[in-house]
Structure formats: C-alpha cells, structure tokens
C-alpha cells in the first residue's frame, strides 16, 4: 500500500514543482529578459501548461485516494479536500481566468480604461489564486501523514 504513497509523492512533486518553477522562476525570468508583450504571451502559455498538469494530477490523485480509502471514508482526510480545492482552482484558471485574460489581450486593451481595469482585476485574482495554490501544494508536499493514513485503512 505504501507504494501508492510513493506514486502520490512523485505526482505531487511534478505538479507542485511545476507550479513553483514556472510561477516563481520561468515567468519572472521571461519578464526580465523579453519584451513585455512577448513575455506575457509566453507566461500565458506556461500557466496554461501548469494548469493542465494540475488538472490531470489532481484527478489521478483523487481517483487513487478513492480507491485507497473508499468513497465512505474519503471525506475524512484533509489532504483529499485540499487536492479537491486545488483541482477546482485549476479548473477556474482553465475555464474562466485564462480565457478571459486572453480575450482581453486580443483587443486594444491598453487604450481602453475599462478593459485595462478588467485585465488588472483578473491578473490580481490570478496572482492570489496562484499563490494560494502554491502554498497549499507546498503543504501537501511537506506533510508526512501518509503513513498514518495507510495504517488507518489497514
């Protein structure tokens, strides 16, 4: 049973590692070294990829937790709720925030104060959600309650 936890650890490392490396290394480096418009487009593509990784990872993690703990006791584990919350945030990025920001970028948004304000609001929301996801993910990676959860199931 512990091999499932090794797989969970690896998947979490991929997901959360991509969150941190893209959001706090690759994108800032892009804005430091590229034209703002090019860096913004590049950042959007990177964040899209990170959210796809998050979507796939969260679904795999939740399904595996359902198999391990069963549907009746799945809800008892805070880690399951955290993964579900992060999945919902990833879906929010993919179906609302990123498409809305991309559609605003297609317009002459810097010349229109309403579009600029809308973009800035979405950008701040995006930054806040991304930081929250990064911290929740770090909490998932750093916690060590997997063994005690496994013993409760056995």
TrEMBL record:
Please give the InterPro entries that the UniProt record associates with this protein.
TMEM205-like
Start and end residues of each TMEM205-like domain = 10-105
A Pfam match is DUF4149
Query: Has UniProt tagged this entry with the keyword Magnesium?
Result: no
Quote a single Gene Ontology cellular component term.
membrane
Q: Where are the transmembrane segments?
A: 12-34, 46-68, 80-101, 121-142
Keywords assigned by UniProt? Membrane, Transmembrane, Transmembrane helix
Q: Does Transmembrane helix appear among the keywords? A: yes
Q: Where in the cell is it found?
A: Membrane
What this protein is called in its record is: TMEM205-like domain-containing protein
Q: What species does this protein belong to?
A: Methylophaga sulfidovorans
